[in-house]
Amino acid sequence: GNSVTQMEGPVTLSEEAFLTINCTYTATGYPSLFWYVQYPGEGLQLLLKATKADDKGSNKGFEATYRKETTSFHLEKGSVQVSDSAVYFCALSEGYGGATNKLIFGTGTLLAVQP
Amino acid sequence: DSGVTQTPKHLITATGQRVTLRCSPRSGDLSVYWYQQSLDQGLQFLIQYYNGEERAKGNILERFSAQQFPDLHSELNLSSLELGDSALYFCASSGVEGAFFGQGTRLTVV
Q: Which of B33, B56, B102 faces A43 most closely, judged by CB atoms?
């Protein structure tokens, strides 16, 4: 079945460091890919998405590119801030063209940014 | 603010009891999804409703049931509760942009 694998955390970085959180997926068909962020005590917030191969999703300085050849959707940010400390979830949806069906989530990666 | 409203935020109840969690989707969204988040299982899809009808089922126990009403709000009913049902329960609604989540209901079974 479809699945998402993301790197184990926690990831600890100093402020202004470069961030990469790896995410790979297994899917039949043409899934849409998402990154969600969960701040302590809050729900999941949609960070960015990509609906087809080579699409780049971006938001708030974060970006991720849908790579079909490597089945990956790695999250990157050039300069992290303390306020980026949160848990990041990679997810896929089996919908087409942006339509969203149920989401399959990775295990989440805790990011801790130190001042 | 995602536009998805869940009540209550916290719920503490005893084993064997029954509870109802409520979700109001974003205005205009017809799909509602329920997810369970626990430390050992991570985020698990439970069930999806679309415009009042069940659309997809995931790892939902037989003790759990859900429905979506004509005004599109949804309820998740959990019965014969066990300690292992303690978790964060999220509702999400979706449109073309993606799925948007509520703040969740933290259920503690004691």
A: B102
